[in-house]
Design goal:
By secondary structure, the protein is an alpha+beta fold. It has two domains: 96 residues, no CATH class; 107 residues, no CATH class. The longest helix has 19 residues.
Length: 215
């Protein structure tokens, strides 16, 4: 089995790929059209240079890059090895990487889309959108702005974040209701990374959009 540190490294590296693609450096942008590579050919040329350099420099076995626009895959390619012992190359169709906190990017995008549609108020008490009670530890309510900036003030732990087997998995709403963390800081007072807060935002997206968060 892969070590926890290796899994974390994979997750961090995948997140870095997203950041590099969305926010190319001035040097990278100068060699490509404004906003970075746009066609499959430009993307392949860009990543064929950038990714191998990063894999070697950071001692990372392999990675997958995929670009999607309007529901269509524009580019996908694997780099490096999926299994070093067997020298199995990364296959974008079958190699599995931990998604981890990249889901936060999609969660915040969904929140902002609903906010633009007038279905969510980023400054409203999140209790407005929930079907269970968040403890009223402080007078100040927790808002989506707090969740998105990790300033809600929730205690954070990793208790039962991962199911040991598929048959032990529960729905997002049920899990959130049974794992409500303590509110240890006033909202907006301290920045503290919160997986629970992001999952809470995802559940709000699910309830307001009537689309399962897992989709």
């Amino acid at each position: 089995m892969k070590s926890t540190s290796h899994r974390l490294l994979q997750a961090v590296w995948t997140a870095c790929l997203v950041i590099v693609f969305l926010f190319p450096s001035p040097v990278q942008a100068a060699d490509n059209p404004p906003g970075g590579p746009r066609t499959p050919e430009e993307m392949e040329a860009f990543f064929d240079q950038a990714i191998p350099e990063q894999l070697e420099g950071r001692n990372i076995p392999g990675a997958v890059v995929m670009a999607v626009k309007d529901g269509e895959v524009l580019f996908e390619k694997g780099y490096g090895m999926a299994n070093l012992a067997n020298q199995t190359p990364v296959d974008p169709e079958s190699s599995v990487f931990h998604v981890a906190s990249i889901t936060k990017l999609f969660t915040w995008t969904a929140v902002m889309q609903l906010a633009e549609q007038g279905k969510l108020d980023l400054a409203a008490d999140i209790q407005t959108y929930l079907d269970f009670e968040i403890p009223t530890t402080y007078d100040e309510p927790v808002t989506l702005q707090h969740l998105m900036t990790h300033t809600a003030g929730f205690e954070e732990n990793n208790y039962e974040y991962v199911a040991a087997a598929v048959d032990r998995m529960v729905g997002l709403g049920a899990w959130l209701k049974s794992h409500i963390p303590a509110r240890v800081r006033r909202p907006g007072e301290v920045t503290a990374y919160s997986n629970y807060g992001t999952a809470l935002a995802g559940y709000i997206v699910e309830r307001i959009s009537v689309i399962p968060y897992s989709v």
